[in-house]
Write a structure and sequence with these properties.
alpha/beta, seven-stranded mixed beta sheet, 6 helices, 7 strands, 218 residues, globular
Length: 218
Amino acid sequence: MKKFRVFISGQKFFAEEVFRLCQKLDIEIVGVCCPIDDKYIGKAAHRWNIPIIPAGSLNADNMPECDLGITAHSFDYVGKKTRYIPRLGWLGYHPSLLPRHRGRSAIEWAIRMNEPVTGGTVFWLNAGIDRGDIAYQDWCWIPPEYHVNPQKSASALWKEELLPMGLKLYEMALYDILNGVIKRTPQDKRFSTFEPDTNVKDIYKPDLLMIEYNSSHN
């Protein structure tokens, strides 16, 4: 019987753990896209002689055929032609309860906005930023003390809650897909938000700047 084949685009520890998850489920990894100096999934791919495409250069011409594409801590945009190469499409993981907090700094914005709850979402990639159909979600509390230092707390919340949550959700998704179950629920636009990358200082968005200003002067 032909093995289920995936391609992984990502980096760092989370991507390596997704790589190991696929191996545990006896899924064939046909290639990875990662930074050339990545010491996690890059090192694992070298160890298992799996082809590597350098981050930033993935396109429809060098993407191998597969059943599913997976992004794991990847900041590379997957173009339209590349999205259509996997038979089933691409799954991504976003550390928020989509459609809330689309964008690169989702965890930090949930903390900055004094929200008591956040979560993670495995979703199907489309042309928009974090706008694809939802496959699986879970939630967690944001400890009240995290609001004192949102940037530092975002890193802690990722490591303590949202990273392991992402792996659990990916395992659920892959297990279901291997058994012929595919879940897709469109995002509810009524609840959507998008916030800019907090590392970019020249974005003018008054409502968010006001929140940042108030949180730093309390």
